[in-house]
Design a protein that fits this description.
The chain has 316 residues and is α/β, with parallel strands linked by helices. It is built from 10 helices and 12 strands. Strand 4, helix 5 and strand 5 form a beta-alpha-beta unit. Helix 6 crosses helix 8 and helix 6 packs across helix 10. The chain binds guanosine-5'-diphosphate.
Length: 316
């Protein structure tokens, strides 16, 4: 059931140079008549309310995919909580309040699987939000994302705005941040294993115990899901975007080592945090609507390694 059509709409993707934003732009190229609106960071600083409102007033988007955010892996989140909470709240308030003020018909806000309580039952259902304490390593980011999800819900309830929050599981793919210190685990490990092979290092060191379990989704699947939900979901309740298999960090590392053909050892640095021991999202709601991811972890990892080798590594 289509609840909203994207065809022939003016669509603003915030954060269009990021991993998720750029994947959404690629997906929207398949939707008839969409006018894609994007703006470089140097031309519009989303932490500036007045500038953000002016952009909305001039460009008159009818739909907003709000993907702009300060993101990072476990270490970056742990060491810069001030920046993670402030930037994400400020940008989100400016974009969401501005969208409401300037007549945006549909807004798709990105939640995050890390905003569910640390000890949630697995796989995590949407109604777990705010039912317990957060994982401390990403509390700042999570608090900002929870506030913005609630803001969208309140707009729905108080002003009947079709603003939805979609919660993707852990994402990876082209456009990810491959920095070995600041990136999320898949991108960081691709960088570490490729470098170890090039430099003929005898081992690669993982953070933590290698035991945490994570569910991963390729960003092209996530973008297809977000574009699908923009058209098929209009509700004040959160919706998870997931449906993949769960793997341990150690299994993931072994798979990446195989793909890059790295023959050395895999060590563990247990002084680094594990974060949540298990994180996977219940996909009942989204699968009932008729959507499932298509890209297997192996396929997705292979194409992401190819992307890294052709687009990222040669420039270093
Ligand atoms: P999280 O899903 O929010 O915990 O974020 P990450 O993707 O950064 O980390 C996922 C898991 O991978 C955590 O248990 C990390 O400790 C583990 N991990 C192992 N090696 C690495 C690494 O090199 N970088 C990152 N970011 N995580 C790693």
């Amino acid at each position: 059931m289509t609840t909203f059509t994207l065809e022939n709409k003016r669509v603003w993707v915030t954060g269009h140079t990021g991993m998720v934003g750029s994947a959404i732009c690629r997906q929207l190229a398949n939707v008839a008549g969409v006018t894609l609106l994007t703006v470089e960071r140097k031309a519009l600083d989303l932490t500036r309310q007045q500038a953000t409102e002016q952009w909305l007033a001039e460009q008159q988007p009818e739909v907003v995919f709000h993907c702009a955010a300060k993101v990072g892996g476990i270490e970056a989140n742990k060491t810069q909580p001030v920046e993670f909470i402030s930037e994400n709240l400020t940008i989100g308030l400016n974009v969401i309040n501005g969208a409401a003020k300037y007549g945006v018909q549909k807004l798709i806000n990105l939640g995050s699987s890390c905003f569910y309580p640390k000890l949630s039952e697995q796989p995590i259902v949407e109604s777990s939000l705010l039912s317990g304490a957060l994982e401390p390593t990403n509390e700042a980011y999570a608090l900002a994302k929870i506030s913005l999800a609630k803001l969208c819900q309140f707009y729905h309830q108080q002003y009947q705005k079709d603003f939805i929050t979609v919660v993707p599981t852990n994402l990876y793919g082209p456009g990810d941040n491959f920095d070995p210190n600041a990136g999320h685990v898949i991108a960081a490990l691709i960088d570490k294993f490729v470098m170890a092979k090039k430099q003929q290092l005898s081992s690669v060191t993982l953070w933590g115990t290698g035991k945490p379990l994570r569910e991963f989704m390729h960003v092209d699947d996530a973008a297809s899901g977000l574009v699908f939900l923009a058209q098929h979901y209009s509700n004040d309740k959160l919706i998870n975007l997931s449906g993949g298999k769960t793997v341990s960090i150690y299994q993931l590392a072994q798979t990446i080592a195989q793909i890059v053909d790295y023959q050395g050892g895999i060590l563990l640095d247990e002084s680094k945090p594990d974060g949540m021991m298990k994180k996977s999202l219940d996909d009942s709601l989204v699968s009932q609507l008729g959507w499932k991811p298509k890209i297997t972890l192996i396929q997705g990892l292979k194409s992401t390694v190819e992307f890294y080798l052709s687009r990222v590594a040669p420039y270093e």
